[in-house]
Design brief:
The structure holds two protein chains of two kinds. Chain A is α/β, with parallel strands linked by helices. Chain A has two domains: about 230 residues, Rossmann fold; about 60 residues, Alpha-Beta Plaits (2-Layer Sandwich), CATH 3.30.70. Helices cover about 35% and strands about 25% of the residues of chain A. In chain A, the strands form three sheets. A six-stranded mixed beta sheet of chain A has the order 5-6-7-3-8-9, with helices on both faces. In chain A, helix 4 crosses helix 5 and helix 9 crosses helix 12. The mean pLDDT of chain A is about 90. By secondary structure, chain B is an all-alpha fold. Chain B has one domain. Chain B has ten helices and two strands. In chain B, a hairpin with a 2-residue loop joins strand 1 and strand 2. The chains are: A alpha/beta, B mainly alpha. At the A-B interface, helix 3 and helix 4 of A face helix 1 and helix 4 of B.
Amino acid sequence: MPSPCHNALARIGMTPQPAIHVAAIRKTYGATVAIDDVSFDVSPGEIFGLIGPNGAGKTTTMECVEGLRTPDRGAISVLGLDPSRDTRRLQQRIGVQLQEAQLQKRIKVREAVAFWASLYRNAVDGVDGDRLIEQLGLSDKREAWFMTLSGGQKQRLFIALALINDPELVFLDELTTGLDPQARRAIWDLVRGIRQRGKTVFLTTHLMEEAERLCDRVAIIDHGRIVDVGRPAELVQRHCPERTVTVATEDATAPERFREIPQVQSVSAQGVHVTIRGRGDDLVTQVIQCLAEHRIRAIDFRAELPTLEDVFLKLTGHVIRD
Amino acid sequence: MLRGLWRLTWLEIKIFVREPLGVIGTVGVPVLIYAVFGRLIGSRGRSDVPRFVSADLPIFAALLIAVSAVLSLVTIIAIYREAGILKRLRATPLRPNTILSAHVLVKLLFTAATFVVMLLAGRRYVPLGAGGAAVPLGSFTLALLFSTLSILSLGFVIASIVPTARFAQPIGTLVLYPMLGLSGLFVPVGALPPMLRLVARALPFTYAVALLKGIWHGEGWSAHVGDVAVLTLMFLVSAAVSAKVFRWE
């Protein structure tokens, strides 16, 4: 959900300056084209996800935006600054979590937070640093060495470090990769909390479920090119309007009745299970109405909505690999 | 960003001493070996001991400490790069030079500390005054640090080219120990075959040995302006080369 401020501006017909503006950037490593013609905008206050399989160019794109790499071509503006020219000024205003980065094995959680705080002009002070550690559930790990932390704890520490300068914009690269589902959910809550504090979040993920649950908008990237950008529901609507409803019933007339529904495209029966395929959001309602009208007794009823996973398959012709 | 440099240096010192093997290896072992060797051969002037061992044992030991500091630096940088620690630090307002300088400072500090502890531990067997005149210890430590700095910058060139952390130690060893062999400590540079003599003249160790020997035996810095100049030049060249080829990830 975009921030209240963003909504207010949108209502009076003003588009706020995007937090990130990327225009047709390209980056090659030797003969390999990592990304090409990548463009997108990230609005203030939203969680924006760059999604795609490993090796699609997510990290390269993100590191160009962070100012860690310079694109060969194209333009980037972040909070009104050029990340490769104003790197230092930008670094004070953004928070960064890098994919698969580590810290020194024997650095203590408390030391890392204090050291990072010392590097920024508007860093949270000691007391707030403690609160940050507490908010991220690391209080009992304050004196622990980095190497002794679990995967989830390490990622929470990295979030703490990314938030240490109270940044306007936070970059999270494959934040939950390798975490168990429980730790993943906890991290999602933390990211939503960052948005709640009015900050913009730019993240990458190859987990479609994560994108769907967490992101206000996503850009799908494959083989270094942006395939489409939009709200997850919008993308599903646009590319996968098909709906599937499966009804289990012993009523032999059921398939005939379902075929009479206007939106229905196909009906197939397998034993007691009747699978109805059609288009449009109304399909589920129509099937329920049909069941009621003809007094068809259903033993089971299941509606399947397409997901971003399906959108990805449709757009790229291959499944996203974990 | 001087404040960041001190803070990072202090942090890296604390982190370094938390690894018991690292401290034993860099400080404990040299001190122990020096004491043992000193006791065996030190001041007795035995004729079956090569001259460089009896006369130049402290210089030999000092250079070994310097080499081990360089090896340790090469390894640490390689590990930090492989684990993404360098990249993470570079994504902060810290300047790249600050990150690397902190490691140099840590190494110089441990080099000085190890050397002083070593001399103190062995002073019963290897007297600090040769023929009545006291060795200028402060001057010598300064010369050692200066030499180490020049060799450390060479270490950064090595650290730039080692492919992975696993290769850091072996490659560093392969490059550094032969350099030590040609340094003039074991065989005078003048006595080397012409080709090797040329190689020796291109290596920082040769000038480090000349400087250290001179200072240890009571010569002034003014007698070694040339050595200092060459070591400075080598430091600048190595620093410039590694600034070009250094890989952060």
